[in-house]
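User: We ran a pulldown and think these components assemble together. Before we commit to crystallization trials, I'd like a predicted model of the whole complex to look at. Sequences follow.
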Amino acid sequence: MVKKLLSIAFAVILVAACQTGSMNKGGAGANGNYAPGSQGDLATRAGDHVLFDFDSSQITAEARETLAKQAEWLKQYNSANVTVEGHADERGTREYNLALGERRATSVKKALISLGVEAGRLQTISYGKERPAVDGHDEAAYAQNRRGVTTIN
Amino acid sequence: MIVRILTLIAVMMPLSVNAIERIDINRGVVEPMPIAISSFTSESSEGKELGNNITNVITNDLESSGLFRALDKQSFIENITDGRKQPDYPSWRQLSIPALVSGHIINKGSESEIEFRLWDVFLQQQMSGSMLVTKSANWRRAAHMIADEIYKRLTGEEGYFDTRIVYVAESGASKTRIKRLAIMDYDGENHKFLTDGNSLVLTPRFSPESQKILYMSYAKKMPRVLIRDIESGKERVLGDFPGMTFAPRFAPSGNRALLSMAKDGVTNIYEIDIHSMNKKAITNTADIDTSPSYSPDETKIVFNSDRGGKPQLYVMNSDGSNPHRISFGDGRYATPVWSPRGDLIAFTKWGDGTGMFYIGVMRPDGSGERLLASGYIVESPTWAPNGRVITYTKQERGGKSRIHSIDLTGHNERELITPTDASDPAWSPLLK
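Assistant: Here's a predicted model for the assembly, 585 residues in total across the polymer chains.
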């Protein structure tokens, strides 16, 4: 029973890691481990993305926990510079969502700075609703797509 | 692309008094006006073929407006053999049509003289006539120009058939969507891709001379507004901004443009001189101010802002003074676009939950809101140059995205045929 639960947890982590969209620089080994300091390592050990509420760029309590782990990770790998991508769900106009994505990316950047990461290591870019994480067209999909993703340059 | 028009003096006829009752295109539901369009005649077989092609395009233009219905040629009694000559009015009157179109083509190899006539069947006189001298290869444009003239004579408003549409052609999976700029005649013909798809591109917008476009590109991972010459393909970044620039739109005079820049979590509106690239901040708030659009006289700007808590429409003077909210209905409003006539503002609207999206119009003071089209996602309205028709992006829940057009009355919704998925249409002015 314990064994089964563990394998479920493992599967969840893998799914989360795949969301990075950085398969080729994820650094995955054959056994599913990631090279230290790689995008995959960040995704599995800290979580490389945080989610936002509808039309909001507020960092939620859950997101703050993830960002605290990201900040720790970034202190460990202090040569890594990152770009924070801001994304929106598709329920808005293209232009408004570009602005919203930028605001979300900035929220993540400011939170990481407040957690001790040097500002000079952090860039931002907004993709608005142009690069969804998941394909669906329902509330579950929208929730996954309203996100800030920390990507290693 | 040069087409000369020589308006023919109506030598054969007494002065026209324009007797046909005009189509009242402001009425809600208009019964299409029946019209007879006789194939343009010619003495050569090449000329006859050209004539048939031109007649087909004129017919398609007029019928696509929803305002005209072309009579089946099988019902014609007179077989017109020279489209320049006065028709046999009594035989056309029997068909109960107010207007007849005829024409004649003299084919001179690479050049053609295309002559057309619009006849008032009841008053028995010529309403309009002109001769276009053009390279034969330009026959489509000649046909659109003739259709515009007929539309103008019979509705009292400028036409919109001799126009082009620039848009974003989409392909591939949603997570890695490929987007390319593409341009086509308003009816989907002469389709051409302008960019190769290596960079994500968004929101192209025509200059008033229809020779240049502004659009947003992610080239070099630097999301910026570019200005591009359509014919030469030459382009450059519009202005030197420290952050992402987007939501561009030309001023009606063409000398300057509006755009917005997002930086440090704040989006403001800037004006930029197309020639000197000098820029000026128009708004300076801690909010999202975007999607600006000038009034035709350039004294006012309508824009989208969330300064009140969620996206709504605001109008301000073009120097940024006196901003005031104009949208007060339920839901969220964005991408306002001022009509070329100045009388209305088109917008996108959607609900807070999982409801529909709408394309609507309201007066510049916010009164008279009307919703014209709806869908899972409809957005990015753009006006026909005569301010009578709007095209927009229509995305289905499955992701399929196409360009649709709808009449200002809310009738005659049509899909523009594009080779791939499509979004972000921008309608050119009437070509010159």
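Confidence is low (pLDDT under 50) at residues 1-24 of chain A. That may be worth checking against your pulldown data before setting up trials.

User: Thanks, that helps.
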